[in-house]
Amino acid sequence: MTPRVLIVVGFIAALGGVLYLTSERGPRSTEAPEAGTPLPTAVSRPSRPGKVVDVTFLYSTEKKDWVEAAARDFERAHPSIRLTLVGRGSLEAAQAILEGREQPTVWSPADSAVLRMLASDWATDASRGPLFAEAGEQAPRPLVITPLVFVVWADRAEVLRKASGGGAVSWKVLQKAVTSPRGWPAIGGKGEWGLVKLGHTDPTRSNSGLQALLLATLEYYGKRGGLTVEDLLDPGYQDWMKALERGVTRFEASTGTFMADMVRFGPSRYDIAVVYENLAIAQVSQAQGRWGELKVSYPALTLWSDHPAAVLQGDWVTPAQKEAALEWLRYLHSRPVQERALQFGFRPADPAVPLKTADPDNPFTRLASHGVQVDVPPVAEVPEGPVVRDLLMLWSRVLTSGR
């Protein structure tokens, strides 16, 4: 099994578990970024007196705006700490750390499961110590949380809602729509809309794509959890899932860039997309002036992403960097920064920060007409490791073969 598959398998196997450990950071990778990977961003700040400590923060791209806003304020208050921000898809980042292509000081993937998976794969080399601390202030903690949602252009959303029986958008209805040569008219839409264009990220590179596969599979079997290897080997399921995946126009590496493309290119590229709630919240207003109204729809079952932050314990991280990294994490967990996360569509990890506030800019009240809601549907149960392994192998070998 390839390192990438190992990374992904470990990720999903851990996906529903207890939140993992927090850790540290290190000097950034000296290698050039992969194609499509955002370049590192050095946060501009006033001149720094005395010795400066460098902290590289590798993070999942969907929290880019919140992270960059926090970093600007942090560096003004901490002139002796220089932050370098590197945005990358969670699974790609895990693979890069495992292979030594990235050596960050702090890492924050989209989900604790990815972090735990990397810790497990890292431990297969007995010559190096644990990558993350297991207790104390350096143990990983979530920064913000967000569920998986559908984002649909408003006119299409109404058609999908009716076709789904008036409730949550159904994966089975989506599969019927994307597989029909009639396109949108097959479920009551307009012929001028053409074929149904579904979008989700590459599940071997991005957390949200993997979550999409799980939710579609669970709905096919009418389950909330308990998927088995035998379920995945069923020919009827494989045919159904392969047809669904044929309707995905492209598999992007990052959920953040994927959502931006939906707004940039409009329904000419995507009719409906599977993304994180925070990205939907961030983009619905921007879409209004370009292509029309976007609606947020919560699936009948969803999955959480808890965005843990960890200071890496690698030998490239110095004691001074560890302390500087902890200052950065303390700042991100502070009440004002947690409250500001609401402005970027995140649900704060701090349970003391309310979602419903009197602030007119609070997106959970301001965007209610777009479908944004405080209450979240039931959360799916994550399958065991062997099921995840076979699901990913199935996706790579069968479901997307020939693409």
Q: What features would you highlight for this structure?
A:
single chain; 403 residues; alpha+beta; D-Maltodextrin-Binding Protein, domain 2; 2 domains; 6-stranded mixed beta sheet; globular; Extracellular solute-binding protein
Ordered list of secondary-structure elements with their pairings:
Layout: H1 3-14, E1 41-42, E2 53-59, H2 64-77, E3 81-87, H3 90-98, E4 106-108, H4 112-122, E5 141-142, E6 144-153, H5 154-163, H6 171-179, E7 198-199, H7 207-221, H8 229-233, H9 235-246, H10 255-265, E8 272-276, H11 277-288, E9 294-297, E10 304-305, E11 308-311, H12 319-333, H13 335-341, E12 347-348, H14 363-366, H15 385-399
Helix pairs in contact: 1-3, 1-4, 1-15, 3-4, 6-9, 9-15, 10-11
What is the radius of gyration?
21 Å
Strand fraction equals 5-15%
Whole-number tally of structural domains: 2
Proportion of helical residues: 25-40%
Query: What is the terminal separation in angstroms?
Result: 21 Å
CATH architecture of the largest domain: 3-Layer(aba) Sandwich
User: What is the level 1 CATH name of the largest domain?
Assistant: Alpha Beta
Q: What is the assigned CATH homologous superfamily of the largest domain? A: Periplasmic binding protein-like II
DSSP E strands, number: 12
- State mean pLDDT (0 to 100 scale): 86
Stretches with pLDDT under 50, minimum 5 residues: 16-39
The 3D shape can be described as: globular
Q: Class by helix and strand content?
A: alpha+beta
Strand arrangement, major sheet: 1-3-2-4-11-5
Tally of individual helices: 15
